[in-house]
TrEMBL record:
It is an enzyme of class 3 (hydrolase). Keywords: Hydrolase, Metal-binding, Metalloprotease, Protease. This is Mitochondrial inner membrane protease ATP23. The keyword Hydrolase applies. Its EC number is 3.4.24.-. Belongs to the peptidase M76 family. One of its GO terms (biological process) is mitochondrial proton-transporting ATP synthase complex assembly. Signal peptide: none annotated. GO terms for cellular component: mitochondrion. The gene is Atp23. InterPro entries: Peptidase_M76_ATP23.
């Protein structure tokens, strides 16, 4: 998957190499969550009882790898700062493919103008409420306060990848990012 390949390479370049046997865990989970990122162990949990399709697993892995990347590069305070959590959830919803047009149509949610941003905001709020015992108002306020900056933080993709083709282009661009300045 080009999304995962790019994120794994970005993590490695940031000094946080991911090892499949150490940083991924398949478990049975409660509810209908697809996965999670455990900051205490830097481990991605995949909910094997809730993931039924390869495309869903790819999105979950990408979403959680974005959290791992944020944990590595930004030293996110997951437990005490709801704005940090909100920012990573915005980035994950924005960059993982969670809000593609096809996924939104499958959820019977679609619109034209500004729909991607609306989807990202709604999914970030839902994710915060799923992992923290905060009020909906607290989650909404945190998302609203950091939305613009975090929505526009496209690292390491450099763009919002709306398809696998976009993700492949972003991966090639990422690989060549320092190529031209390295010899200066």
């Amino acid at each position: 998957d080009p999304y995962a390949r790019l994120l794994l390479e970005a993590l490695k370049q940031s000094g946080c190499t991911v090892f499949n046997d150490r940083h991924f865990s398949c478990e049975n989970c409660d509810g209908c969550v697809g996965g999670g990122f455990d900051a205490a162990t830097s481990q991605i949990v995949l909910c094997q009882n809730n993931i039924r399709q390869q495309s869903h697993m790819n999105r979950v892995v990408t979403h959680e790898l974005i959290h791992a990347f944020d944990h590595c590069r930004a030293h996110v305070d997951w437990f005490k700062n709801v704005k940090h959590l909100a920012c990573s959830e915005i980035r994950a919803a924005n960059l993982s493919g969670d809000c593609t047009l096809m996924n939104e149509i499958a959820r019977f949610k679609f619109g034209l103008k500004g729909h991607h941003q609306t989807c990202v905001r709604d999914r970030a709020i839902r994710s915060i409420l799923a992992v923290r015992k905060v009020s909906k108002e607290t989650a909404e306020k945190a998302v609203d306060e950091v939305f613009d900056a975090c929505f526009n933080d496209l690292e390491p993709f450099g763009r919002i990848p709306h398809s696998k083709a976009d993700a492949k282009r972003a991966y090639r661009d990422f690989q060549n990012r320092d190529r031209y300045t390295a010899n200066l």
